[in-house]
């Protein structure tokens, strides 16, 4: 039985914007759709490049120990994209003064703007989620819900029973609600032997 091919990011965008002329994104034939978030005003797309095999290293994340590090044989890069619909205007330039007027539109370009990214190393039932964040310049009012959805989509995609992450993210917005508070809401707890690293043991079926 053949494995079902993943949905490409561009396929999901085309379905949401049927009047599009082209979709502007790097590597359009590689980004795979992981999850689509339906926000109030626009969809957001969580996508990933194909899995890559990684050379095993016993000291990649030294505090996790050699056994876990050597199990992390796969890598994946994720991004969250915000669509920017951009109509291509048809202009009629008048000779006098070089002024012009809009005659109509010639098409619709959907510019996919990255607003967040993350990395993950995984294998052997373990995973490390690294630098999962939204860009500060792109934060929307619903950024916390969007970041939570981004993180949970990665967890589901990796499907590892044991997850690790470092309890430090410089791009997390400062405020009363800290990054450690955020990790706690996701179900992570500090490792006793190295509190800088936090762990989540998934009890749901993976």
Q: Could you give a quick summary of the protein structure above?
A:
The protein has helices at 9-16, 66-71, 143-158, 179-186, and strands at residues 22-24, 32-38, 43-48, 52-53, 74-93, 100-123, 126-134, 162-166, 189-191, 194-201.
Short descriptors:
206 residues; Aminopeptidase; ten-stranded mixed beta sheet; 10 strands
Structure description:
The protein has about 210 residues and is of the alpha+beta class. It has 4 helices and 10 strands. Strands 1, 2, 3, 4, 5, 6, 7, 8, 9 and 10 form a 10-stranded mixed β-sheet that branches. It is globular and about 70 Å long. The model has no long low-confidence stretch (mean pLDDT about 90).
What's the total helix number? Answer: 4
* SSE string: HEEEEHEEEHEHEE
Largest sheet: 10 strands, mixed
CATH homology group: Gcn5-related N-acetyltransferase (GNAT)
SSE blueprint and pairings:
Elements (H helix, E strand, L loop, with lengths): L8 H8 L5 E3 L7 E7 L4 E6 L3 E2 L12 H6 L2 E20 L6 E24 L2 E9 L8 H16 L3 E5 L12 H8 L2 E3 L2 E8 L5
Parallel strand pairs: 1-6, 7-8
Antiparallel strand pairs: 2-3, 3-5, 4-5, 5-6, 6-7, 8-10, 9-10
């Amino acid at each position: 039985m053949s494995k079902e091919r993943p949905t490409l990011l561009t396929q999901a965008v085309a379905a949401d914007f049927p009047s599009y002329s082209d979709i502007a994104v790097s590597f359009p034939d590689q980004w795979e759709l992981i999850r689509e978030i339906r926000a109030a005003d626009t969809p957001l797309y969580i996508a990933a490049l194909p899995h890559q095999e990684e050379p095993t290293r016993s000291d990649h994340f030294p505090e996790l120990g050699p056994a876990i590090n050597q199990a992390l044989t796969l890598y994946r890069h994720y991004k969250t994209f915000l669509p920017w619909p951009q109509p291509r205007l048809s202009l009629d330039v008048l000779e006098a003064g070089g002024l012009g007027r809009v005659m109509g539109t010639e098409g619709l370009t959907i510019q996919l703007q990255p607003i967040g990214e993350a990395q993950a190393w995984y294998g052997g039932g373990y995973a490390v989620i690294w630098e999962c964040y939204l860009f500060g310049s792109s934060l929307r009012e619903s950024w916390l819900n969007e970041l939570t959805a981004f993180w949970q989509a990665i967890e589901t995609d990796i499907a590892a029973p044991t997850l690790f992450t470092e309890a430090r993210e410089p791009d997390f917005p400062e405020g009363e609600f800290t990054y450690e508070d955020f990790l706690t809401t996701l179900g992570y707890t500090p490792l006793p032997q190295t509190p800088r690293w936090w762990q989540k043991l998934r009890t749901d079926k993976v």
